[in-house]
Amino acid sequence: MQPAAFPIARWLYAFGPARPSVIAEAVGMDRSSTSTPIGKMRSLGLLDSSPAPDDRRSIVAGLSEQGRRRVAATLEERGKEFYAHTQDWSEDDLARLIELLGRLTSDRPA
User: Which of 13, 107, 3, 18 is nearest to 65 (CA)?
Assistant: First the structure.
């Protein structure tokens, strides 16, 4: 899977099928930037797509079973790597990391 495709796959794993425009907005990418990874993921069998129920000109894309397994395996591997890097950290260091990550991902400026 291309690196640009993983945020799309991870979002679909968490939130389920959606129109490409919704996916693009959710992952902070331009709609035109998502069409190539979505097309590649579909050609690899990682995505299923179907016509949108309310507009047959549009599609709804979602992870295939193979795509769900692949994302789950990748997330598990990344979790193991994260744990390996932080397993010896103190509770204070972990609390500080959580605080800083919360600040980094917050919608409000510091």
Answer: 13
